[in-house]
Write a structure and sequence with these properties.
This protein is of the alpha+beta class. It contains 6 helices and 8 strands. The two termini are 19 Å apart.
């Protein structure tokens, strides 16, 4: 997305592109408020007022655990193991239930209850709880490269579906500049999509009724 923004600024020097972080506790709020035109997000997103593009990339999942947790000594963990620990979750007041069930489930695949720990509002809070032994939390395995700290271990899942990422934009009132930006994302992502089972090109949004920003 950063590369696409840089390329877009060169081709459209009269336009501004601002990259912002979207908090996990309110993944749809900015788009619905009209402050975000295009968002890279974790799928699934199934909302009538939001259009999603194809899958851009996948990441294997891991479990963040305290360094002294029994899971920390394992080579991998299972979704069933979540029933034997406490899961640090998110405040889900603004998060679709189907999204929470995928990433912060209440039950294992076999139906065992997963103990629910603190419901956090921001990602740094999750890291603090894990490092202090409060519980465990699911995450992308790649997160270890960016968020590793003392007192924490990342253990890969051997049976969890990957985290899938794609783009989404408002179904109505789409910014006319979203289409040209998606064209650039297509250019940059082309080597990834050339791989087997790669997603199709991003569709062009309907920009009817949205003034040029």
């Amino acid at each position: 997305m950063v590369q696409a923004a840089d390329r877009f600024r060169v081709r459209h020097p009269h336009c501004d592109v601002e990259i912002v972080e979207v908090q996990l506790c309110d993944p749809l709020g900015g788009m619905r408020a009209g402050t975000i035109d295009l968002q890279l997000t974790e799928f699934p997103i199934r909302e009538p007022d939001i259009t999603t593009g194809p899958l851009l990339f996948k990441e294997p999942r891991a479990l963040m655990v305290p360094a002294d947790h029994s899971f920390a000594r394992r080579d991998s963990v299972s979704l069933e193991d979540l029933a034997d620990t406490t899961l640090v979750t998110l405040n889900d007041a603004h998060i679709p239930r189907y999204w929470m069930d995928r990433y912060f489930p209440r039950e294992t695949p076999s139906g065992r209850r997963i103990p629910q720990g603190p419901a956090t509002n921001f990602w740094p809070e999750v890291l603090v709880h894990i490092a202090n032994g409060v519980g465990v939390s699911t995450v992308s395995l790649r997160a270890e490269n960016f968020h590793q700290r003392p007192g924490m271990v990342f253990v890969p899942f051997h049976d969890a579906p990957p985290i899938e990422y794609g783009l989404m934009w408002p179904t109505a009132g789409t910014n006319p500049l979203t289409g040209p930006f998606l064209d650039i994302v297509n250019e940059i992502a082309h080597p990834i999509r050339s791989a087997p089972h790669a997603p199709e090109e991003l569709p062009q949004p309907d920009t009817t009724g949205r003034p040029l920003g």
